[in-house]
Amino acid sequence: MGIGQFILNGFKIVLIDLLLAGDNALVIAMAVRSLARKQRRLATACGAGVAVILRVTLTAVAARLLTFPYVQIAGGLLILWIAVKVMVDASDPPDAAPAPRKLAQAVWYIVVADLTMSTDNVLAVAGASKGHVGLILFGLGLSIPFVVFAANLLAALMDRYPALIYLGAAILGQVGGDLILTDPFAVRTLHPSNAARWGVEAALAVGVVIAGKLLSTAMARRAAAREAPSEPRP
Question: What is the longest distance spanned by two Cα atoms in the chain?
Fold first, then answer.
């Protein structure tokens, strides 16, 4: 590969990272939303760093992995669960869980969700690099600062505009539905039309928000009931 082609492929990878890092940044922002500001950068950097290291090792088998049935179904269900869980966590007060527990939980969400949602990124980088290991490492490593910056920006916006939490959860619901319906088993068995896909994705987007809201409300009521002083017996 000549130097000109190397630079051109590197530029392609930069554009790929910019275009495809949005959904990853969103799920990271949702995951770190319940953390204190000082812990957000640590959780984001750790989670994204571990995920990228795993992505490097998975790049060679990513295309093959996608052909296995149920892989995207499992990933989509996981994204839906994370979307509901982070909505519930985001409604907790900052001291509702010990800081180390919240930090470890956020890193876990980031790693799992990033790997689940990064197939397009991995395959695009692998294609643009033409198999060049140096370019693969450059492209996947470059995604860390992009995602970290975007995730911290989104988390800050959610602090200022809490309604964005609901929008973020709805988008994750749509992403989860898309993963499920594009799984080879779902395509082969259900043959979903574009209209059916859009309908299911819209329903899941709304359903995730409703489920997260109901769960957070129920948990808040239970917590209030536990903290309420018991009435003295006559």
Answer: 90
Amino acid at 116: T
What integer best gives the mean pLDDT of the chain? Answer: 76
Q: Which residues contact 6 (CB under 8 A, 6 or more apart)?
A: 132, 135
Backbone angles phi, psi at 196, to 5 degrees: -65, -40
Judged on CB neighbours under 10 Å (0-12, 13-18, 19+), 19 is: exposed
Q: Are 85 and 145 in contact, with CB atoms under 8 Å apart?
A: no
Q: Residue 98 carries which DSSP code? A: -
Dihedral (Cα; 168, 170, 176, 180), 10-degree rounding:
-160
Reported as a single tens digit per residue, the pLDDT across 70-123 is 877 887 888 888 888 877 776 655 445 445 566 787 787 777 777 666 666 666
Question: Is 183 in contact with 76 (CB distance < 8 Å)?
Answer: yes
Tell me which residue of 128, 147, 145, 121 sits closest to 10, measured CA to CA.
128
d(CA 96, CA 102): 9
Residue 205 binned pLDDT confidence (cut-offs 50, 70, 90)? very high
pTM of the model: 0.70
Phi-psi region of 183 (alpha: psi -120 to 50; beta: other; left: phi over 0): beta
For 149-172, what is each residue's pLDDT tens digit? 777 788 888 878 888 888 888 888
DSSP letter (8 states) at residue 118 = -
